[in-house]
Amino acid sequence: MRDDQKDARRDAILDAALDLLREAGWRGASMRAIAARAQASKETLYAWFGNREGLFEALIRRNALSVQSTLAPAVVAKAAPEDVLTRFGTALLDLQLGADAVLINRLAIADPVLGAILAEAGRESTLPLLARFLSELDPEGAIRADPLDEAIEDYLGLLKGDLQIAALLGVPRAVDTRAQARRATERWIRLYAVNP
Amino acid sequence: MRDDQKDARRDAILDAALDLLREAGWRGASMRAIAARAQASKETLYAWFGNREGLFEALIRRNALSVQSTLAPAVVAKAAPEDVLTRFGTALLDLQLGADAVLINRLAIADPVLGAILAEAGRESTLPLLARFLSELDPEGAIRADPLDEAIEDYLGLLKGDLQIAALLGVPRAVDTRAQARRATERWIRLYAVNP
DNA sequence: CGATAGGCGTACCGTATGGTACGGCTTGAA
DNA sequence: TTCAAGCCGTACCATACGGTACGCCTATCG
To answer: Cα(B102)–Cα(A195) distance, rounded to whole angstroms?
Structure first.
């Protein structure tokens, strides 16, 4: 099997796992079911991923990579701070409330090992972006994200509110993510603007 | 079996379930294991709770009741708005980051039916308190929680930030809940103070 | 004080799972 | 063109689960 084919096959298997998680939950996404859905052999799954946890770990890592590559472009844009922060917040919110992310998070919450992996991968892939972002936001010294960790925490809190928990519980509220991000941005700037 | 004994027995069974969830997770908290731990019969469990989901549902509802009765006293206190808000936030944070609440939330996140139940029970038991609280906070018209739903969402976001997700993932960050509540309160008041 | 409701413990059933083993076939490399 | 690596499909194993049945025994109530 050529390397590119192998990558595609691997992706297909992870996609199958994700589909089954969506359709039948953790219980339904058994190694049998995943193999059948992907037209793969159980033995192949075990050869490639070690065991069930390893497969799910691969799923989590793949997702973290895609998050990072989706989010990064939102940072480079040159525009008014509130616009670029809103853009970033919208992207982040779309990601974290999206169906895939919800499934991935459910997975990680159900298993301590996966939880640790997701927490690490997640914080590594999005927090540095946001940190650099907020600290360099300062255009003419009108906004000071200081102390930085509190500023980050406040922004994430204002952005997400209870929405992520609601999504994880399977009771998502309808949200205009762009409007939500704009609101969070406006409030956050109000908190961190250098007072006139 | 006298009624009070029955209630105690029921509580003991739910406690056993909670213990097993803590020690062995969702997979370990099987009906067998719960029955053995509580020195009860499987048949009794099924007679009292219907099935596994029913038992876990009972667990969720019991927890929601205890949350409500824990939180309610924090509302009545008469003091400066920021102090009473801080007290309330601390209590809420302690509850939501506490071991039991984390286990309960994990449970609900793993099962759509339980998720719906927890979402409803949770919102019913804490949101009205917070809503009434924020809207009546107004001492001399210096603070206006308006629009109310946004004010609530902002307060919860500032209070919880990413802490709850981290706890659910099993990577809790050490937090001084009182300090965190104080910070959130201070920021929230800054956002909702009627400007001089 | 006797009877009966109902909890305890154990055994049982069908089913599904994670994980392994093993032919047979495809496919990329020599 | 040959050959071997490795993937597919199926069968297999031990184990555990949710759920039910049943005999024993305690404790409540008439």
So the answer is: 39
CB contacts of B175 in chain A (<8 Å) are none
What is the maximal distance between C-alpha atoms in chain B? 66
B28 and A CB contact within 8 Å: no
Most confident range, picked from A72-81, B95-104, B132-141 = B95-104
Of A115, A150, A161, the CB nearest to B157: A161
Contact indicator for B151, B71 with CB cutoff of 8 Å: no
Task: Report the distance separating Cα A163 and Cα A194, nearest Å.
Answer: 29
Do residues A134 and A128 lie in contact, with contact meaning Cβ atoms separated by under 8 Å? no
Beta-sheet strands, E only, within chain B? none
Tokens of A117: 């992996």
Q: How far, rounded to the nearest angstrom, does the alpha carbon of residue B23 sit from its chain's CA centroid?
A: 20
As a rounded value in angstroms, the CA-to-C1' distance for A40 and D7 is 8
**Residue B3 Cβ < 7 Å to strand D:** no
CA–chain centroid gap for B126, Å, is 8
On whether the CB atoms of residues A152 and A127 are closer than 8 A, the answer is yes
What number of other Cβ atoms are within 10 A of residue B7's Cβ? 11
Of B115, B113, B103, which Cα lies nearest the Cα of B23? B103
What is the pTM for the complete model shown? 0.94
pLDDT per position as a tens digit, B109-139: 999 999 999 999 988 889 999 998 888 877 6
Contact B107, B122 (CB under 8 A): no
For A77-107, give one letter per residue: b (16+ CB within 10 A) or e.
eeeebeebbbbbbbbbbebbbeeebbbbbbb
**For residue A175, what are the contacts with CB-CB under 8 A and spacing of at least 6?**
A93, A97, A163
Q: Is the pLDDT of residue A77 over 70?
A: no
Name the more confident of B1 and A119.
A119
User: Please, is B39 exposed, middle or buried when counting C-beta atoms within 10 Å of its C-beta (0-12, 13-18, 19+)?
Assistant: exposed
Token pair in block for residue B196: 């001089």
